Amino acid sequence: MSGFDAVANLAQKALRRLQSAHKPLVRGLRRGERAREHAAFRREIAEVEREIAAMAAGRGPIIVGPWLAEVGYEVLYWIPFLRWLVDAHGISRDRLIAVSRGGLEALYDELAGRYVDIFDLMTPPELAAANTRRQAQSEGGGRKQTGTSALETDLVTRVKGHLSVPDATVCQPAFLFRMFRNVWHGNLPVDVLTTHTRYVTGRLDTTPVPGVPADFIAVKLYAGPALTTADATRAAVRALVEQAARVAPVVLLETELGIDEHRDFDLRGLPNVTSARALMQPRTNLGVQLALIARSRLFLGTCGGLAWVAPFLAVPTVAVYDTDAMLAPHLLLARRAGRDAGAAEFAPFDLRAAARLQLLAGAAGSGPVR
Fold first, then answer.
1. Fewer CB within 10 Å: C terminus or N terminus of the chain?
2. 282-298 per-residue burial string, b: 16 or more CB within 10 A, e: under 16
3. Parallel, antiparallel, or unpaired: how do β-strands 169-171 and 62-64 relate?
4. pLDDT values of the chain reduced to their tens digit, one per residue, 370 residues
5. How many Cα atoms are found within 13 Å in the side-chain-facing hemisphere of 201?
6. Domain ranges, ordered by start, for the chain
């Protein structure tokens, strides 16, 4: 080796050492930045807890809501969050006034002495239009409730007038979204959620519904974030319901009320399948669906929405999806909560797996698997 080559090799080694010397420093800086971010997230949790404590203080009535976001978040997070809040602050049931929509009195009965349905304060078209404006103006097009919108303020004013409680304080859904958003985004550990929620399992007291079999499978399958409208998905959903109807009569929890963006799949013409559409009115539709789920032997539904609550009503559940981009954290949390509360079986069913293995008579295999 020439002297020149030796010097060149030494220079290259020195350069590599210089290039690697900064890595521990960079890693340290990144850890420091991450620690500061976590500290900021924890401070936000502490601030929300202080605001909740101030809201809960005293003896006056508390308006819980109004809830305007997805029913899935309502049953999986909001109501368990309220159970924690009541326990943590010793709030008596007669202080709480729950405000939701669609006849969900049965879900709030354990917590709130009074319930006001939004459809008793405004018509479904009025709510749909106002909620669309809220989402565009306050939530960047999203459906969550991260702040207090004009619609929420208007509804609170109407509730106060309706029940003559002018001095009532408000437990805003924004408390929930601020508390848990960094858990859903993976920035804080799951224990932030588990220590601020209470999950319970129990059956709803329901009576037989005229025209509905005594023994049946309840089905609620609609297009949304978890189920696409691809032709292969439509065929797979139809084949799945056809198979379920061979096990027991199927009752479709169809609504098509036009008050949200969900649209039920067309399942007409299948043998041993009937529709509960005639039972559905805007004011009571969610309550009717819950009552039918509670009386069923099995719930087969789109993953999300009422599929989250069915296992906690002691009803085994098959939750169908063909894309999990929006589902991953909620699937994890739902299964953990169900296990801890002794809920009925919750079985997620990925149509992509059915397509790969041709489990639905080839129906799901008629298109590409994503």
1. N
2. bebbbbbbbbbbbbbeb
3. parallel
4. 565 555 556 556 655 665 565 566 556 556 666 778 878 888 999 999 999 999 999 899 999 999 999 999 999 999 999 999 999 999 999 999 999 999 999 999 999 999 999 999 999 999 999 999 999 998 988 889 998 999 999 999 999 999 999 999 999 999 999 999 999 999 999 999 999 999 999 988 877 788 899 999 999 999 999 999 999 999 999 999 999 999 999 999 998 765 555 678 889 899 999 999 999 999 999 999 999 999 999 999 999 999 999 999 999 999 999 999 889 999 999 999 999 999 999 999 999 999 888 887 644 344 434 4
5. 18
6. 29-194, 217-365
CATH for 217-365 is 3.40.50
d(CA 217, CA 248) in angstroms, rounded, equals 6
| Spatial CA neighbour of 312 closest among 335, 284, 285 | 335
Cβ atoms < 10 Å from Cβ of 6 = 10
Side chain identity at residue 23, one-letter code: K
Helices (H) and strands (E) in the chain, counts: 13, 12
Distance CA 38, CA 32 (A): 10
Q: Tell me the DSSP string of 108-174.
A: HTTT-SEEEEGGGTS-HHHHHHHHHHHHHHHSTT----SS--HHHHHHHHHHHHHHT-TT-EEE-HH
Strands (E), the chain: 62-64, 96-100, 114-117, 169-171, 217-220, 222-223, 250-252, 263-264, 273-275, 298-302, 317-321, 346-350
Q: How many CB atoms neighbour CB 61 within 10 A?
A: 21
Neighbour order of strands in the sheet with 298-302: 273-275, 250-252, 217-220, 298-302, 317-321, 346-350
Say if residues 131 and 173 touch (Cβ distance below 8 Å).
Answer: no
- Backbone φ and ψ for 144, nearest 5 degrees, come out as -75, 180
